[in-house]
Specification:
A hairpin with a 6-residue loop joins strand 7 and strand 8. The protein is 50% helix and 18% strand. It has two domains: 113 residues, Winged helix-like DNA-binding domain superfamily/Winged helix DNA-binding domain (Arc Repressor Mutant, subunit A, Orthogonal Bundle), CATH 1.10.10; 174 residues, 2-Layer Sandwich (Beta-Lactamase). Helix 1 packs across helix 5, helix 4 crosses helix 5 and helix 7 runs antiparallel to helix 11. The strands form two sheets. A six-stranded antiparallel beta sheet has the order 6-5-4-9-8-7, sandwiched between helices. The chain has a three-stranded antiparallel beta sheet with strand order 1-3-2. It is built from eleven helices and nine strands.
Length: 300
């Protein structure tokens, strides 16, 4: 079967190259043919991974193009073709389609994502009830602390920031709504992990590993289990420069009818996260806000 999948995929690429040639050399009578060819076979062309036999190859390539443009803040046709190991003609077909649908734009020789993705992200964000319920408390924490206040949920074993608000004294960090991180690297993620069984956490580790972001990141499973067990009852979790050097974070879970649905945190430079403020005052402010958010979720 794998050979069949490879044959189909090779045939798709050949068709796409032929279509690109037809479009560039004889755009008139051949236009319908050139438009049809690239999409005539991809539904048969699937990944040669036995675990993903129902994955459409053309959809996978499209997603990889989008991810590459995001990760590299734009790219040229040549860069995309080299990274995806496909011909320029093949990649150009995908780019032309995405551009026609207004998901990417071309600036000089580079392609960039458009605000259509912000529209989609905003729609998903607004549908998350905890985002709406936490908004006022997050604003309050920002006013009172002047620091970065974040809201995270878990999706497919990763932490996803769904809201990030910055106070007057906040330092610039790489978090924004939609940004994904490894759960074990953050106070937010630990708050979410602590509510899961050992088996569930082991499954996440099996899927994503325990990658290090700094020298302080926990990379040993047993060490992670020990920390979660030690502070689970307190509902206060700490990130001591475990994702970003020079930054500390304190977080706490948000529950709905006893189930952890999100976590909220405050992040600041180490110089402002010392002793009583880090270990007592900010945690108390967080748990007070989490309690109000939980009540709003329960009675909304």
């Amino acid at each position: 079967m794998r050979n069949h999948f490879r044959m189909y995929n090779a045939l798709v690429e050949l068709c796409e190259e032929c279509a690109a040639t037809l479009r560039s050399t004889t755009p008139g009578i051949y236009s319908p043919v050139a438009t049809f060819i690239p999409f005539s076979i991809p539904f048969l062309a699937m990944s040669d991974d036995p675990g993903s036999r129902h994955h459409i190859q053309s959809a996978i390539v499209t997603v990889r193009i989008i991810d590459f443009l995001r990760e590299n803040d734009g790219a040229t046709l040549k860069e995309l073709a080299e990274d995806l190991d496909r011909s320029k003609g093949s990649i150009h077909n995908y780019l032309s389609t995405l551009q026609a649908e207004e998901y990417i734009k071309q600036e000089d020789r580079e392609y960039h994502l458009t605000f259509r993705f912000l529209e989609l992200g905003g729609y998903v964000q607004q549908k998350e009830q905890v985002y709406d319920m936490a908004r006022e408390e997050m604003k309050k924490l920002v006013r009172e602390t002047g620091e970065v206040v974040s809201l995270m949920i878990e999706e497919d074993g990763e932490g996803v920031y769904i809201d990030v608000r910055r106070g007057a004294d906040a330092v610039k960090m790489d978090m924004y709504p939609g940004y994904r991180v490894a759960l074990h690297q953050t106070a937010l993620g630990k708050a979410i992990l602590a509510a899961k069984s050992r088996e569930e956490i082991e499954a996440i580790i099996e899927q994503h590993g325990l990658p290090a972001a700094t020298d302080n990141t926990i990379t040993d499973p047993e060490e992670l289990f020990e920390e979660l067990e030690a502070i689970r009852e307190s509902d206060i979790f700490f990130d001591d420069q475990e994702r970003i050097e020079g930054v500390r974070c304190v977080g706490t879970p948000i529950r709905r009818q006893g189930e952890v649905v999100a976590a909220i945190s405050i992040s600041a430079p180490v110089s402002r996260m010392q002793r009583e403020r880090f270990r007592t005052r900010l945690p108390k402010m967080l748990t007070d806000s989490a309690n109000i958010i939980q009540l709003n979720l329960t009675f909304s």
